[in-house]
Amino acid sequence: MKRKWERDLGLQGRMIFTMFLLAVVYLFFLAFLSYYGTPPVYMILFVGFFMAIQYFYSDKMVLWTTGAHIVSESEAPQLHGMITRLCAIADLPKPQVAIVKSQVPNAFATGRNKNNAIVAVTTGILDKLSPAELEAVLAHELSHVKNRDMAVMTIASFISTLAFYLMRYGLYFGGMGEDRQRNGGSFVLIWLISIAVWIISFILIRALSRYREYAADRGSAIITGQPSVLASALMKISGIMSRVPSEDLRTVEGMNAFFTVPAISGSSIMDIFSTHPSVEKRIAKLEKMQQDMT
Question: Which of 133, 135, 141, 213 is catalytic?
């Protein structure tokens, strides 16, 4: 049975605002490089080529970097059955299903839109959660697909990565102009602007990432009708995470912005640098949802 889905205007507004600000920041940065001698054609070709790769192959790159492999219905019938049922409730086309061989209990969604989505889970989460808790986590990931924030985060994260490499190699590109000697004194300024661009994008993406987790938690509560079950799953994943060897956590930490719960142990760094709200805050909101439903 399909359930009424309320559009999260707060999330929509934040996604539009984040992409707008990122576009302004990056256009300013490219204009700055162009002013100090970088041939515009090089920048356009470079950005266009990698944006095309990111748009069409981002899901495959994520699967490759995490070691996830697509599984058929015969290989994982219970997992497929859960996702099929949840997609019917959420009014979503069924995504591809993937499994990552990792003891880190987690899940993520990737893809450029709801028709090209992939939902992946680790073997660790399959072993540790009850069927109801696993369904709640899967509903959380499907909510990212439903909200379309998955695609925005994928694109924004790529642009941030691009800014990072421009920051590293900006001095080289900045000196490719015809009047290299005249621009020599500008190299340090280009490098400082590059750092500022990357820091701004870093903060904007994390601010969006934290809000989208709240939105996906609400989506899971709507789809399953049981916010307390997701709260139980988050508590269990967080508790297990603290016992996972640091070496295992490091192998997947690059995917933290996409995970249900970030793969970190111990105390986290300042909230402004966190990809997720604290598990305690998320559980408190879910408990309030449960009270409102009863």
Answer: 141
